[in-house]
Amino acid sequence: MTARAGEEALGFDPGDRSFAGVAAIGRIRSAWRAGDCPRNLRQARERGGGHARLEIDAPYRPGLAGLAEGQWIWLLAWYGDRRRDLIVQAPAHAEGPRGTFALRSPVRPNPVALQLVRITTLDAETGRLEIDATDAFDGTPLLDIKPWLDTVDRPPGP
Amino acid sequence: MTARAGEEALGFDPGDRSFAGVAAIGRIRSAWRAGDCPRNLRQARERGGGHARLEIDAPYRPGLAGLAEGQWIWLLAWYGDRRRDLIVQAPAHAEGPRGTFALRSPVRPNPVALQLVRITTLDAETGRLEIDATDAFDGTPLLDIKPWLDTVDRPPGP
């Protein structure tokens, strides 16, 4: 594994120290391929969103009841194709190395990505949702959907 | 397992269909005990915050570099003491049953809780952070810390 100057690795793979497991409730589908993904959601929106949609597996579709088109939701997805042992990183866009927990890099001990997206169309019966954008590549495992809540999901103030 | 009227279970435990594992980077410490937790972060703040703090395990502490006191961060934590198979729920505070993905209930296929909190004190060397509040009970495994980003973590508009 190569490292940029200032980067630090853990010396072990956190995946080898798992205490619980995650299941896929479906997948994120997009126009992005591994190696050609937008760097983040903002860049994804600038590139047109990526024809982003969700495919929810059949057993989990009843869990969509109560969601609505136009609603903002959190996606938790597993970006598991990257290394998990880098604890200080030197991203190309940042000035100098920074701790992994001060970055939104997909490279992290538990590669659970967090994205705030808007539902544009929703078909609970087929488990298909179109969303405004994603930075995930096609086929990324989806772990969870949560409603965005005004009361707790933003810092107080303007 | 008991069910309220209108609730639906999956018929399997998603934990038995894991494709990857999560590791604890530390723990959330608080005044709350299982069975006496606030229902959510807003209620936790109304109850004084719960003397909330984080203890990061030694190997992961370099990952805190770049975080600062006063900063808002996301916590991802594992609420793994609940069942994972309830896909439609009838919470006491809601009117009628709703899909799990339309709720912030800790009962969900992948029990990864999401909390936006503010760092009040930070000691990267000892891995101790005080935060303004948590609804997690004492000892809850912490999976990740991410910086809150104004550009992607709130819906556009006022």
Key terms for this structure?
homodimer; 158 residues; mainly beta; Elongation Factor Tu (Ef-tu), domain 3; six-stranded antiparallel beta barrel; three-stranded antiparallel β-sheet; 1 helix; 10 strands; S-adenosyl-L-methionine (chains A, B); YaeB-like (chains A, B); methyltransferase activity (chains A, B); transferase (chains A, B); TrmO-like_N (chains A, B)
Kindly describe this structure.
Chains A, B: This is tRNA (N6-threonylcarbamoyladenosine(37)-N6)-methyltransferase TrmO. Chains A, B: Pfam families: TrmO_N (PF01980). Chains A, B: Keywords: Methyltransferase, S-adenosyl-L-methionine, Transferase. Chains A, B: Belongs to the tRNA methyltransferase O family. Chains A, B: One of its GO terms (molecular function) is methyltransferase activity. Two copies of one chain form a homodimer. Chain A is built from one helix and ten strands; from the N terminus they run E-E-E-H-E-E-E-E-E-E-E. The longest helix of chain A is centred in the N-terminal third of the chain and has 6 residues. Helices cover 4% and strands 32% of the residues of chain A. A six-stranded antiparallel β-barrel of chain A has the order 3-4-9-8-5-10. The model of chain A has no long low-confidence stretch (mean pLDDT 94). The first copy, chain A, has one domain: YaeB-like (Elongation Factor Tu (Ef-tu), domain 3), CATH 2.40.30.70. The termini of chain A are far apart. Chain A is globular. Chain A has 158 residues and is mainly beta. At the A-B interface, strand 2, strand 5, strand 7, strand 8 and strand 10 of A face strand 2, strand 5, strand 7, strand 8 and strand 10 of B.
